[in-house]
Design brief:
Elements (H helix, E strand, L loop, with lengths): L1 H24 L6 H12 L3 E3 L4 E3 L3 E12 L8 E13 L7 E10 L2 E6 L13 H19 L5 E4 L2 E12 L4 E12 L2 E2 L4 E10 L4 E12 L5 E14 L7 E13 L4 E11 L2 E10 L6 E12 H4 L6 H12 L14 E13 L2 E13 L2 E11 L2 E10 L6 E12 H9 L4 E14 L3 H7 L1 E14 L3 H12 L13 E14 L2 E10 L3 E10 L5 E9 L18 E8 L4 E5 L1 H23 L4
Parallel strand pairs: 5-7, 5-8, 6-8, 17-18
Antiparallel strand pairs: 1-3, 2-3, 3-4, 4-5, 4-6, 7-10, 8-9, 9-11, 11-12, 12-13, 13-14, 14-15, 15-16, 16-17, 18-19, 19-20, 20-21, 21-22, 22-23, 23-24, 24-25, 25-26, 26-27, 27-28, 28-29, 29-30
Length: 609
C-alpha cells in the first residue's frame, strides 16, 4: 500500500512540475516566429498570428488562438486568403488516459476565405501543397482509415461545437463573377457516442443570378464503434430568389433521415417529404459506394407536376431575342460516357405531369442503367382518354450516344393531343399508334436527321378538320354542270370518316406514308405522301372516290360521280396545311364518262356492235 501511495504522489508531482514548467518557464508564443517562417518556407505565404497563444493543462488541455491570417499569392486582389477571428478548443486531460475524449467546447468564429481565380488560371490554392505531400497525405489517410476501422473510443463527450460568422468569397476574374457563401451558424449540442445530439445550421449564398437562404435542424448520432452515422428527422427549408425563377422566388422544403454505414460503405436515405413549386414528393435512396462502380437504387412518389408554371415566360422582344440566341448558339453533343461511372435502378411514380401544355396522368417509370447503357424497361401514362406505353435504351458508351425505342398509343383523343402538343387542329378521333425506331446523336437537328423508324396508325370515328371534301366535290360538280354561280359554301369545313389506317417510315427527316386508307359514308380516300419533320413541309396526294350520295347519307339514286377517282392534294406545313381539289382531273373524268355514255348509245343503235 505504501508503494502505491508513493507512486501516485510521485506521478502527481511530475504532472505539477510539468504544468509549472509549461506555464511559468515555457512560453508557446516563443514558437510563433518559427511557425511563421515554416509556413513561408513551405508555401511562400505570409502567416500572421495577431494575438498571443494561450494554453490550459489541468483539468483540461486547451488552446486559444486569435487574429490569424494567411496571405494570397502575389498579384491577387485580396491580400489575405484566410482570416480567423478566434479558435477555442478544450479537452479534459485525465479521461484521455482511458481512451475517453471529453471536450467541453469547440468554437470557431469569424473564418473568412477569399478565393480568387485569375484570367491565366492561377488560383488562391496554388503552392499550398506539392505532389510529395499529396502522396504522403494520401498514404497517411489510408493508414489512419485502416487503423480506425479496428479501433473504437471508450467514450466521446463533446459539450458543444459552435461555428459562427464563416464567409467564403469566390472571385473568378476570367468570367467577372463573384460568389459569396456565408455560414451564419453551425451548432452541435451535447454530443456522446451512441446518443443523438441536436444539429442545426443557417446558410446563405449570393450568386450572380440568384440568392439562397437555407436553414436546417435535426438529430445526429455516431455509433460507439464509429462505423455508423445516423441523422434523424432532418428538416431543411430553402428559399431561392432570382429573376430567372417563376415569380422571382422558389421555396423548397424537405424532411429526411440518413444512415451511413462506413464499414459497409452504404448510405440509406428516406425522404419523408419534399415540396417545391407546388410539387410534393416522397421516396428513398440506397447507395452502395464501396465498389469501383457505385450502385444506386431510388424510389420516388411524386404528386402533380406543372413544368409550364416553373419555366420563365418571355414576351415580345425578350422571346424574339431568346429565339435568336438559341438559333445562333453552337450545339454541343452531350457526352454520356460518364454513365459508366454509376449503376442505377430507379422507380418513379408521378400523379400527373403538364409540360408544353401537354397533360398526362399516372406516370410509371422504371429505369435500369449499368455499364453505360440505360434501359427504360417501362414508361407508361394515361394520355387524353387513352394510354401511352414505351420502352427505350440509350447507349452512352461511345462519344456519340445511340438509342432505340418502342412506343405505343391506344385509345387516345388525337385532336385534343395535337392541339395541346403542337397547336395543330387537323385530325379528330380515337387513335391507336405504334412506332419502333433507332438512331444516334442527341442533338435536336440530328435527332430528326438520324432517326430510322417504322410504325402504323389507326384512327376510328374521326374527322379531318379544315376541309369539307364532299362540299368541294359538290361545288366542282355544279360548275361542270354549267352552274358557274356556285361559290364557296359556308358549311363547316370538316370531313367525317369511320376509319383511317396506314403505315409510315421515317428516314433522313422525312416521314413517308405509302398506304393511307380512309373510309366514310360518302367518300373513300386513298393516299400517299411525305411530311418533312425538319421544316414541317407537307407533300401529300389523295385519290377521292364517291361511294354515296353527295347530298348526304340515305340518298336513293347513285351519284353521277360514283366511282370517279378525283385527285386531291395537301401542301403547306403541318401547322398550316393547304387543301386543293384537282378540277382538271375531275373535268377529264367527266368528259371520259360522257364519251363512254355516247359510245354505249351508238352501239345500241347499231345493233350492239
Amino acid at each position: 500500500m505504501k508503494f502505491l501511495k508513493w507512486f501516485f504522489i510521485t506521478l502527481l508531482g511530475l504532472v505539477l512540475a510539468l504544468v509549472l514548467y509549461v506555464t511559468v518557464i515555457f512560453d508557446p508564443n516563443d514558437f510563433k516566429p518559427q511557425i511563421v517562417d515554416l509556413v513561408k518556407e513551405q508555401t511562400g505565404r505570409e502567416l500572421a498570428i495577431g494575438s498571443d497563444l494561450s494554453w490550459t493543462f489541468f483539468p483540461s488541455l486547451g488552446i486559444e488562438l486569435g487574429q490569424i491570417t494567411l496571405s494570397n499569392p502575389d498579384g491577387f486582389k485580396n491580400a489575405s486568403m484566410v482570416a480567423i477571428n478566434q479558435v477555442v478548443a478544450e479537452v479534459a486531460l485525465m479521461p484521455l488516459l482511458k481512451k475517453e475524449v471529453e471536450i467541453s467546447q469547440l468554437n470557431l468564429d469569424g473564418l473568412t476565405l477569399m478565393l480568387e481565380t485569375q484570367k491565366d488560371g492561377r488560383t488562391s490554392f496554388d503552392g499550398l501543397a506539392g505532389e510529395a505531400s499529396d502522396k504522403s497525405n494520401a498514404e497517411q489517410a489510408k493508414s489512419t482509415s485502416s487503423a480506425s476501422s479496428g479501433s473504437s473510443l471508450a467514450r466521446l463527450d463533446i459539450g458543444g461545437i459552435n461555428i459562427t460568422n464563416t464567409k467564403i468569397t469566390n472571385i473568378d476574374n476570367a468570367t467577372q463573377t463573384e460568389q459569396v457563401f456565408s455560414l451564419k451558424e453551425l451548432t452541435l449540442g451535447r454530443f456522446q457516442l451512441g446518443e443523438f445530439a441536436p444539429l442545426q445550421y443557417e446558410f446563405t449564398a449570393t450568386l450572380p443570378d440568384m440568392s439562397i437562404l437555407s436553414r436546417g435542424e435535426g438529430q445526429i448520432k455516431v455509433a460507439q464503434d464509429l462505423q455508423t452515422i445516423t441523422i434523424n428527422d432532418f428538416a431543411v427549408a430553402n428559399k431561392v430568389t432570382g429573376e430567372g425563377l417563376p415569380n422571382g422566388r422558389l421555396q423548397a422544403d424537405l424532411k429526411t433521415s440518413v444512415v451511413v454505414a462506413l464499414e459497409k460503405q452504404t448510405l440509406n436515405l428516406v425522404l419523408s417529404s419534399f415540396s417545391a413549386a407546388n410539387i410534393n414528393a416522397s421516396g428513398s435512396l440506397d447507395i452502395a459506394y464501396g465498389q469501383k462502380v457505385p450502385n444506386v437504387v431510388a424510389k420516388l412518389e411524386v404528386g402533380d407536376v406543372d413544368l409550364d408554371a416553373m419555366l420563365p415566360k418571355h414576351e415580345g422582344e425578350q422571346a424574339k431575342e431568346a429565339q435568336q440566341t438559341s438559333n445562333t448558339s453552337v450545339a454541343v453533343e452531350p457526352d454520356l460516357r460518364a454513365m459508366k461511372s454509376v449503376n442505377l435502378d430507379v422507380d418513379v411514380r408521378v400523379k400527373s405531369v403538364k409540360v408544353a401544355n401537354l397533360k398526362t396522368q399516372n406516370w410509371v417509370m422504371q429505369l435500369v442503367m449499368k455499364g453505360g447503357v440505360a434501359n427504360m424497361k417501362q414508361l407508361s401514362a394515361d394520355l387524353y382518354g387513352g394510354k401511352i406505353s414505351a420502352s427505350a435504351e440509350i447507349d452512352g458508351r461511345n462519344k456519340v450516344a445511340s438509342y432505340q425505342f418502342d412506343k405505343r398509343l391506344s385509345g387516345v383523343d388525337i385532336r385534343a393531343l395535337l392541339i395541346d402538343m403542337a397547336e395543330v387542329d387537323m385530325l379528330d378521333g380515337k387513335a391507336n399508334f405504334n412506332v419502333a425506331g433507332k438512331g444516334s446523336s442527341l442533338l435536336p437537328d440530328n435527332l430528326k436527321k438520324n432517326l430510322l423508324a417504322n410504325g402504323k396508325f389507326e384512327i376510328a370515328d374521326g374527322a379531318i378538320h379544315g376541309v369539307n371534301i364532299p362540299q368541294m366535290i359538290r361545288e366542282a360538280k355544279a360548275k361542270l354542270g354549267g352552274d358557274l354561280s356556285s361559290g364557296a359554301s359556308s358549311s363547316e369545313k370538316k370531313t367525317d370518316f369511320t376509319s383511317m389506317t396506314g403505315s409510315f417510315k421515317i428516314a433522313k427527316g422525312i416521314v413517308t406514308n405509302p398506304d393511307l386508307d380512309m373510309a366514310s359514308p360518302l367518300i373513300r380516300l386513298k393516299g400517299a405522301g411525305t411530311a418533312n419533320i425538319i421544316n414541317e413541309a407537307l407533300d401529300y396526294k389523295l385519290t377521292t372516290s364517291v361511294v354515296g350520295s353527295l347530298e348526304g347519307q340515305g340518298g336513293d339514286n347513285r351519284d353521277a360521280l360514283y366511282g370517279v377517282e378525283i385527285p386531291f392534294a395537301i401542301k403547306g406545313t403541318m401547322s398550316e396545311p393547304k387543301f386543293s381539289l384537282d378540277t382538271k382531273a375531275l373535268l377529264d373524268s367527266k368528259l371520259k364518262d360522257e364519251t363512254n355514255k355516247l359510245k354505249d348509245s351508238l352501239l345500241k343503235k347499231l345493233g350492239g356492235f
